[in-house]
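Issue 218. Parser rejects a valid record. Input:
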Amino acid sequence: MTEWASKKYNEYYNAYVPWLEDKYLAWFGENKTSYTTKEQLDKTKLTSDPNLNAVQDGLNTGVSGQLKSDGLLGGVGDLVSKEGVNRAERGDSGLGEKELQAKAQEEGKKGKKGWGESIPGASWVMGGGGDGGKK
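Output the parser choked on:
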């Protein structure tokens, strides 16, 4: 019973929390992209001078404000927020069921290779020695 409840909780959490976050940020004219940009830029104080920090805070607000829904790059911010950030949080690849099945079949035909194994001559990167890319 607890396994089923945990599974259902996670399903609903993954479905509704991104939507709730989007709605909450929309009340303030933000999206996840603009909010995250401002949050990350606020962590990068270059100096301890309060005047320069005030200038930097203004620049940070201006840059992140361009990614808000009503900003100059609002369309980009909204798109990245909905299609990028939300999907990344859910672990969603953005592919439909048919595309996922086709991808799985294609990978099955190729065999399971890591990124280094699929590059000719790059086995030395993965620690396999190999010929180092020499022929």
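Fixed in the parser; the record now loads. The radius of gyration is 22 Å.
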